[in-house]
Amino acid sequence: MPGKADLELDALREEAATCTRCDLYANATQTVFGEGPAAAEVMLVGEQPGDKEDLAGEPFVGPAGRLLDEALAAAGIDRSRVYVTNAVKHFKWEPRGKRRIHKTPNRSEVLACAYWFDRELAVVQPRIVVALGGTAAKSLLGPKFKVTESRGQFVDWDRDPMILATVHPSSILRAPDDVSRQHAKEAFVADLTVVSTALAA
């Protein structure tokens, strides 16, 4: 039987389905809200849904999601106990032939969507938040934050959970060759292992 927090998340998801806080809703298939247990100890925050997520209505179901699942398993983090969401809940894209190509959300779009993240965070109350990639990290830690300088380390912020930033799994998929991709994945797993170690402490 779902608990009070699970019901609160369901209500938030239903409310977000009709979100028009910025213009991105107009060209997206649907709102892609966060998913996972309300009692999750870890909350992963990506940038925005991609093409497959936009069509499925679920976060991290494309190739980057599969890589994320593998990395979480390698780091010893149970995926079923993780809440996954995005800083922006609608897919921002531009046409390229017949394909819809990801376009980075701007600051105003991220700020408009912070409304939903704040409410997700208040319900889930995770022990640790992990920002995946620059857009997510800047949305949570300010526009001057650089993942390249502080990845894999817990940093100070103005909320209760511990927070750590790392790369977005999609950046690993864009590595130029297999060797680079493997090294990038190993570094990503190492960052997530910092999280699993903190959970076990």
Alpha-carbon distance between the termini? 30 Å
Low-pLDDT runs: none
User: Main sheet: which strands, in order across?
Assistant: 2-1-5-7-6
N-to-C series of helices and strands: HEHHEEEHEHHEEHH
Q: What structural class should be given to the helix and strand makeup?
A: alpha/beta
Please summarize the sheet with the most strands.
Answer: 5 strands, mixed
Q: Measured on Cα atoms, how large is the radius of gyration?
A: 16 Å
Number of helices: 8
Q: Report the helical percentage.
A: 40-55%
Oligomeric state? single chain
Number of strands: 7
Q: Give the averaged pLDDT, no decimals.
A: 96
Task: Briefly characterize the structure.
The protein has helices at residues 4-16, 51-56, 63-75, 107-124, 134-141, 147-150, 169-173, 178-200; strands spanning 42-46, 82-86, 93-96, 99-102, 128-132, 154-155, 162-166.
How would you portray this structure in words?
- The chain has eight helices and seven strands.
- The chain has helices spanning 4-16, 51-56, 63-75, 107-124, 134-141, 147-150, 169-173, 178-200; strands at residues 42-46, 82-86, 93-96, 99-102, 128-132, 154-155, 162-166.
- The longest helix has 23 residues, at 178-200.
- The model has no long low-confidence stretch (mean pLDDT 96).
